[in-house]
Amino acid sequence: MIQHFRTLAPLAALLFAAAACNSDDHVSGTRTATADDARPAAADKPAAKAEVGQPAPDFTLVDLDGKKHSLAQYKGKVVVLEWFSPGCPMTKWAYDESGPFATLPAKLEKDGVVWLAINSEGPENKAASAKANKDFVEEYGMKAPILLDPTGSVGKSFGAKTTPHVYVVDAKGKLVYMGGIDNAPQGRVKGGGDKVDYLQNAVSDVKAGRAVKTPETQAYG
Length: 221
Hints:
Elements: H1 11-20, E1 60-63, E2 68-70, E3 79-83, H2 89-95, H3 104-110, E4 114-119, H4 130-140, E5 146-148, H5 153-158, E6 165-169, E7 175-179, H6 198-207
Parallel strand pairs: 3-4, 4-5
Antiparallel strand pairs: 1-2, 1-5, 3-6, 6-7
C-alpha cells in the first residue's frame, strides 16, 4: 500500500503517487493535486536531500506527547526511520500480529537501535490527527514514538513517498540504507524465491561494522 503525502510535489510526482497508491484495488489517503502543489514557495530554503553514503538530513519533530526529537540527538546510535500512516493498509498489515513490525522494532531496540516513526500526512488528512495516531498505538501496541511532520518537509528531504518506507542511519549520522522492509510485501515474495529481510540485514551489517550489502531497494508499493 502506498500512502500519499504532501511531500510528493511537484505535480508529476503527486499524480504518480496517487496512481501507485493501489494495493488490491484499494486506495487510501490520496488527495487531489492542485496547481499550488506544483508551485514552490519563494521563501522556502531548499532542503538537504537524503543520499545513501552521505550524512542524513537532520530534523527536529514533535511526538504525540509534545516531546521534541532530533536526529542529531541520537548520534552514536543506529537509527531506523519508518515513514508511517495509521490509515494505510500496508502499515496496518506490517504492525499486525503476523506482520514484520509486530516484533522487529522491539527486537532492534533491545539491541540498542533507536526506532522513530514519522507521519508526514498533511493536517487536512484524517491520518494526521492525534486521535488516529493514538488509536493505532493502542490497537497495535506500537512502542516507537510517532513524530509529526505536518508540512511534509522532513518526508520530502528523505524522498519518502510510501508507507512503510524505511531508512537506516548509522552511529555517525550517515544514511546507509533506504527502501523496503524486505522483498515480501504482505508476506509474499514477488516472483517467488527466498525472502530477504533488507532492513534487518542492513542493521546487522552496521552493527557488525560491515558495509551494508544492499543499501537501496524498492519500498513497498
